[in-house]
């Protein structure tokens, strides 16, 4: 286990929590959606929000995981228009949200013991299985992304995402305020019919080897997406809220150029621009994205007993 994952386990998630600017807070009162498992679980959660853990795995573990994912049999990949993905842990029946379980692969549960480390963060402590039982692997080539979306009610209201191979910016959106109807009601039949705000309210910079946990209200009150661009520039970095957790010098440099505070100046050679300089005056620093593989882990609370259940699988 890497040093930081051990410390995540012992000192709890709180030290990794990201501060959301007041102007970017979501109004829970605008949320009228009811979902079976996630609402019930989230109501008793003590920690809600976004938690960013840098260096959750080592560089060697990252290489190993990339090797395992890339050597999966071809049919394991589902090829979408703008990315490829693998499902692990079983398929989720669309209508019922029930998992038809399959064992998670050794490279998630044995070496490296990613699932155990995620359990130790206590992010899933109130979920039915106290840890993830399902995993999606997404592969994004530079220029590929994922549309803004929410993860929905089939899962416990927590998601842990490990990033491999490249940084990315996860853009966070709020739901648009609901327009009252002529009768003054804001009820709606379908959560999916809700509109989101057009622009992200903030972004979370995910470095390779980092783990991002989204939990509780944050899971439900915001949508997330990744823009389909091949490099990130000053205007994109200016929205980042986790500058002080970023370790990689080239990303720290980009953040400094965008006027975002980082923990330490990585090299004296970088010019720190005067406070108050508008981003338009700043040099355009572009950081190329490479191919990124993400491992997204969640707990599907409803699990089919089927053959897997009879055999004692989770
Ligand atoms: O790749 C990521 O970091 C996000 C993945 C995601 O949002 C999803 O699989 O629903």
Structural commentary:
The chain has helices at 3-11, 36-43, 59-70, 106-109, 114-120, 217-221, 234-237, 249-257, 306-310; strands at 49-53, 78-79, 84-88, 90-92, 99-101, 134-140, 146-149, 158-164, 168-174, 202-206, 211-215, 222-226, 231-232, 287-288, 292-298. The chain is of the alpha+beta class. Strand 4 (90-92) and strand 5 form a beta hairpin. The strands form 4 sheets. A 7-stranded antiparallel β-sheet has the order 1-11-8-15-6-3-2. The protein has a 4-stranded antiparallel β-sheet with strand order 7-12-9-10. It has a two-stranded antiparallel sheet with strand order 4-5. It has 2 domains: 1-16 and 34-178 and 196-229 and 289-314, Sandwich (Jelly Rolls), CATH 2.60.120; 231-288, no CATH class. Helix 1 packs parallel to helix 5. The site of 2-oxoglutaric acid has 9 residues, from strand 6 and strand 15. Residues 25-46 are annotated as: Disordered. Belongs to the alkB family. Residues 131-301 form the Fe2OG dioxygenase domain. Its main location: nucleus.
Overall body shape:
globular
Output the CATH class name of the largest domain. Mainly Beta
β-strand amount: 15-25%
- Quick one: how many beta strands? 15
Order of strands across the widest beta sheet?
Answer: 1-11-8-15-6-3-2
Q: What is the rounded distance between the termini?
A: 24 Å
CATH superfamily of the largest domain, called what? Alpha-ketoglutarate-dependent dioxygenase AlkB-like
Strand pairing plus helix content: what structural class? Answer: alpha+beta
CATH architecture descriptor of the largest domain:
Sandwich
What is the chain-wise order of helices and strands?
HHEHEEEEHHEEEEEEHEEHHEEH
The number of helical elements comes to: 9
- Which ligands occur here? 2-oxoglutaric acid
Task: Report the helical percentage.
Answer: 10-25%
Please compute the radius of gyration using only Cα atoms. Answer: 20 Å
Low-confidence stretches: 1-11, 29-45, 186-191, 268-282
Give the mean pLDDT: 84
CATH topology category name of the largest domain: Jelly Rolls
Q: How many domain units?
A: 2
Major sheet description: 7 strands, antiparallel
Subcellular location: Nucleus
Domain Fe2OG dioxygenase: 131-301
GO molecular function: dioxygenase activity; metal ion binding
InterPro entries: AlkB-like (IPR027450), AlkB-like_sf (IPR037151), ALKBH6 (IPR032862), Oxoglu/Fe-dep_dioxygenase_dom (IPR005123)
């Amino acid at each position: 286990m890497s040093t930081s994952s051990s410390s995540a386990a012992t000192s709890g998630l709180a030290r990794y929590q990201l501060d959301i600017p007041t102007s970017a807070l979501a109004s829970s009162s605008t949320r009228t959606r009811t979902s079976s498992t996630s609402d019930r679980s989230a109501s008793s959660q003590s920690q809600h929000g976004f938690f960013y853990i840098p260096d959750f795995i080592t560089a060697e573990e990252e290489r190993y995981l990339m090797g395992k994912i890339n050597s999966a049999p071809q049919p394991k990949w589902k090829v979408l228009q703008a990315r490829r993905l693998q499902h692990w842990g079983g398929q989720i029946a669309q209508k019922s949200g029930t998992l038809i379980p399959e064992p998670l692969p050794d490279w998630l549960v044995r070496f490296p013991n990613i699932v155990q480390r995620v359990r130790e963060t206590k992010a899933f402590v109130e979920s039915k299985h106290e840890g993830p039982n399902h995993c999606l692997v997404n592969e994004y080539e530079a220029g590929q992304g994922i549309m803004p979306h929410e993860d929905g009610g089939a899962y416990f209201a927590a998601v842990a995402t490990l990033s491999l191979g490249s940084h990315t910016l996860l853009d966070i959106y709020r739901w648009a305020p609901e327009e009252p109807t002529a009768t003054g009601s804001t009820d709606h039949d379908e959560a999916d019919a809700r509109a989101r705000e057009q622009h992200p309210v903030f972004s979370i910079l995910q470095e390779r080897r980092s783990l991002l946990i989204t939990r509780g209200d944050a899971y439900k009150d915001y949508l997330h997406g990744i823009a389909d661009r091949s490099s990130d520039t000053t205007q994109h970095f200016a929205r980042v809220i986790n500058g002080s957790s970023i370790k990689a010098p080239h990303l720290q440099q980009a953040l400094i150029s965008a006027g975002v505070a980082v923990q330490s100046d990585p090299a004296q050679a970088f010019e720190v621009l005067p406070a108050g300089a508008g981003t338009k005056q700043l040099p355009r620093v572009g950081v190329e994205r490479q191919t990124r593989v993400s491992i997204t882990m969640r707990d599907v609370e409803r699990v089919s007993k089927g053959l897997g259940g009879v055999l004692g699988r989770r």
